[in-house]
Design a protein that fits this description.
This protein is α+β, with helices and mostly antiparallel strands. The chain has five helices and nine strands. The chain has an eight-stranded antiparallel beta barrel. The protein is globular. The structure holds manganese (II) ion.
Length: about 230
């Protein structure tokens, strides 16, 4: 586990992303950090980050997580990220790697549930519990074959296990805001001088602009009663 690939892809003069250092390994009893970022780059995707041995193991999830245990979501393994990345929210400048807008969608801790006898993480099937604000309970990441049938370790599926947190609710549509700042993607882009129009393609459709935001239904009903 190393940040070499992470650093090679980025110019830290241009991007505000952390350069990072290999952090200290969590000791027994320490909780391990978890984060999920929503990232409008060349395509919208979600980035799952799981702290392990001083870095964040990372997977890009094109369609985002689903709380429905019957739904398997593609998760493409990406380069390890520095621990500080779990707090990153902002704009990655045009021309830079991952150019676009990043929103901190969920954050918390996680626990691996099926470690090997020597304490290492299983290679092909990682069962784990998430303690986030939006994602909770038991999940599994299963390595699978790529589109071309290859098993190069990059293609995984993220699946919710059946438990009290499993649900038919569309968590992505229902909870689109930043867990850190309550902003929508378009607002993160606007505040960071990014591409607002592009970022807004990742926000829920038909959101009224903030200045003319519609009143909640209850309010509207009340004002009707008041005449
Ligand atoms: Mn990404």
């Amino acid at each position: 586990m190393t940040l070499t690939a992470y650093r090679k892809k980025r110019n830290f003069v241009a991007t505000a992303e952390p350069k990072g250092r290999e952090g200290p390994e969590a000791r027994d009893g320490d909780s391990l950090g978890y984060a999920m970022q929503k990232h409008v780059a060349s395509r919208l995707h979600y980035d799952l980050r799981l702290e392990w041995r001083g870095v964040l193991l990372s997977w890009a999830i094109p369609r985002g997580p689903s709380l429905n245990p019957a739904v398997k979501r593609l998760a493409v393994r990406t380069e390890d990220h520095p621990l500080e990345y779990a707090d990153f929210e902002g704009v990655i400048p045009a021309e830079e790697y991952g150019a676009g807008t990043v929103l901190l969608w969920d954050k918390g801790t996680w626990q691996p549930e099926n470690l090997n006898a020597d304490g290492s993480l299983p290679e092909r099937e990682i069962e784990f519990t998430l303690h986030g604000k939006k994602l909770r309970g038991s999940w599994v990441l299963v390595q699978t074959r790529g589109i071309n049938g290859s098993r190069d370790g990059s293609t995984w599926l993220l699946i919710k296990h059946r438990d009290q947190y499993a649900s038919a609710a569309d968590v992505i549509m229902e909870e689109p805001r930043s867990v850190a700042t309550q902003r929508f993607l378009s607002q993160v882009a606007e505040d960071g001088g990014g591409d607002v129009a592009r970022a807004s393609t990742g926000d829920p459709p038909r959101r009224a602009p903030s200045k003319t935001r519609a009143k909640p239904a209850q309010e509207r009903a009340k004002s009707r009663l008041r005449g």
